[in-house]
Design a protein that fits this description.
Layout lengths: L2 H21 L9 E6 L2 E4 L15 E3 L9 H5 L8 H10 L5 E5 L2 H8 L21 E2 L7 H11 L4 E4 L3 E6 L2 H24 L7 H13 L6
Parallel strand pairs: 5-6
Antiparallel strand pairs: 1-2, 1-4, 2-3, 4-7, 6-7
Bound molecules: zinc ion.
Length: 224
């Protein structure tokens, strides 16, 4: 497939993912953002447009240095990239295996983030994040280089992290898996919230989580 055609497919997919996170209640209004790696940079959802109104040509094509690629798409639309594009770029630069990033404010995950709490291994499925917890990065002002650095450092080699007083970021090899991760993490955050409401959940120890993750690898389970 030609590069131009690949980018058209990615633009359509980003709009679909935006509509999906909106439908699932993971974002309200214009909050949240999504991106996909392109051969010559990244494609990122625009700032200030609701997902219901977003069209494929509103998606912004940028080079990794932040320069906006004005092609025939941009002649039709003059959108600005999401204010979190620095975060997306920093993650693509730090993580060569990552091809898709989804940032949302889902209610249960964001409740933990508001409290500055990580999501621990209260269920074996937490292993799908390629770690034993979803850690919480420290608060930094949205859209800043400082936020990007805090997220890259806290996430490490995992596939997700929370951000204090903010929300959730999931990274994957494709947009479908980034959405799947977001859905699973939000479900586990809800489970943690429910368990804490009637008791104190115990946490699965690191040795057992290592076994779980090895088994996930063996059977090729979960988002990648
Ligand atoms: Zn946000």
């Amino acid at each position: 497939m030609l590069l131009q055609e690949q980018n058209v497919v990615r633009r359509r997919r980003l709009v679909e993912i935006g509509q999906e996170i909106s439908r699932l209640g993971f974002v309200k209004g214009t909050a949240g953002n999504a991106s996909a790696r392109a051969s010559d940079g990244l494609l990122v959802t625009p700032s200030g447009i609701t997902y219901a109104d977003m069209k494929p040509n509103d998606v912004v094509h940028m080079k990794m240095d932040g320069e906006i690629c004005y092609g025939r798409w941009m002649a039709q639309s003059h959108t600005a990239p999401s204010s979190e594009w620095h975060l997306h770029r920093a993650l693509y630069e730090a993580r060569p295996e990552v091809n898709a990033i989804l940032h949302t404010h889902p209610p249960f995950s964001t409740t933990l983030a508001v409290l500055g709490k990580s999501l621990p291994a209260i269920h074996y499925l937490i292993g799908i994040v390629n770690g034993n917890e979803v850690p919480c990065a420290p608060y930094r002002t949205f859209g800043t280089k400082e936020l990007s650095e805090a997220v890259v450092e806290t996430m490490g080699s995992r596939r997700a992290c929370l951000v204090d007083h903010h929300g959730l970021i999931a990274v994957a090899s494709n947009l479908h898996d980034a959405l799947e991760l977001t859905i699973q993490i939000e479900s586990l955050a809800e489970l943690y919230w429910r368990a804490c409401a009637i008791g104190t959940p115990t946490i699965i120890d690191d040795d057992e989580m290592e076994r779980v993750r090895a088994k996930f690898e063996e059977i090729n389970y979960g988002p990648k």
